[in-house]
Amino acid sequence: ALVSMRELLDHAAVNGYGIPAFNVNNLEQVQAVMTAADEVGAPVILQASAGARKYAGEPFIKHLIQAATEQWPHIPLVMHQDHGQSPAVCHGAIDLGFSSVMMDGSLMEDGKTPASFEYNVDVTRRVVDMAHKMGVSVEGELGCLGNLETGEAGEEDGIGAEGKLDHSQMLTDPEEAAQFVKATGLDALAIAIGTSHGAYKFSRKPTGDILAIYRVKEIHQRIPNTHLVMHGSSSVPQELLALINQYGGKMKETYGVPVEEIQEAIKHGVRKINIDTDIRLAMTAACRKFLVENPDKFDAREWLKPAREAAKQLCKQRYLEFGCEGQA
Ligand code: G3H
Ligand code: 13P
Ligand code: ZN
């Protein structure tokens, strides 16, 4: 059944676990997340970006997620709009039946220019006022995602600041976070701690200077009752990069957010962990392998099946690692 984000995150906080929020764009990804959750008894957050809504088309996104509630009625499911860039986008998502929206006021409507604190408070509070009337939860973001060494947001064409960011923009300030939560009344707060979207997050296995888990602890100490959200949290498994390259891919050396660091963050208030890239890598690796090994095959279902299975395994692994087993 469709539930609000607030309900799931409150339960996660009381019981000390974190919920991966998986980005979905199509049928196979929805099936992968849902079957993984079903096998381990996990609650589900499916999220659709503006890009996903554009790729699938609004009716398809809406009905794919509704189909999931029909096929798996026993699984508590949140349908979440990822990175809404304006109150209008959030409004549109609520009209489509989303039970949760993210108003990302850390950037201006272009999704590239860092916004002022005042702008962020204003748009986020407006969305909270509108959404809460309809029982819809709201995630806000304070701070800009970006690599602490290079000042780059990553993701050329995705969601991320353009140009160089400085350190203070890329690390959410605990005091400002407290003011932000108080001024907006949001349900969950996305914070910036050195992660970024996409596969190219870190040029080496991250240490405390480039992945600021200590900042999660400081923020959680200041606002212990606020559910924290980590974006850019794919772990970018080295095995998947190797498989992709073994079967004709050309990905460069790169490192993601280690699962142990996420587990540490979950001990300190992180309840929602956004993952998109890892599913992309898993599906691409499986698809490349299948097509190279079976050059005579041409039925799309034959290569989508191993891709869907690989995505499912990845989701299942994250559910177990973040403590979701049996929590649904
Ligand atoms: O926030 C970024 C997510 O990975 C969504 O990516 O905009 O390509 O759908 P997308
Ligand atoms: P990744 O690119 O690390 O999977 O992050 C996804 C994300 O934050 C979606 O909002
Ligand atoms: Zn994100």
Low-confidence stretches: none
Task: Give helix and strand order, one letter per element, not per position.
Answer: HEHEHHEHEHEHHEHEHHEHH
What is the CATH first-level class name? Answer: Alpha Beta
Q: Any guess at the CATH architecture?
A: Alpha-Beta Barrel
Strand residues, percent:
5-15%
Mean pLDDT: 97
Small-molecule components bound: glyceraldehyde-3-phosphate, 1,3-dihydroxyacetonephosphate, zinc ion
Instruction: Compute the separation of the termini in Å.
Output: 11 Å
CATH topology: TIM Barrel
Nearest-angstrom radius of gyration?
19 Å
Largest sheet, strands/sense/barrel: 8 strands, parallel, barrel
Structural class: alpha/beta
SS element count, helices: 13
Helix content: 40-55%
Number of strands: 8
Query: How many domains would you count in the coordinates?
Result: 1
- Outline, from the CA principal axes? globular
CATH superfamily: Aldolase class I
Q: What topology, given as strand order, has the largest sheet? A: 1-2-3-4-5-6-7-8
Binding site for dihydroxyacetone phosphate: 198, 232-234, 274-277
Cofactor: Zn(2+)
Keywords: Glycolysis, Lyase, Metal-binding, Zinc
Binding site for Zn(2+) 1: 83, 197, 231
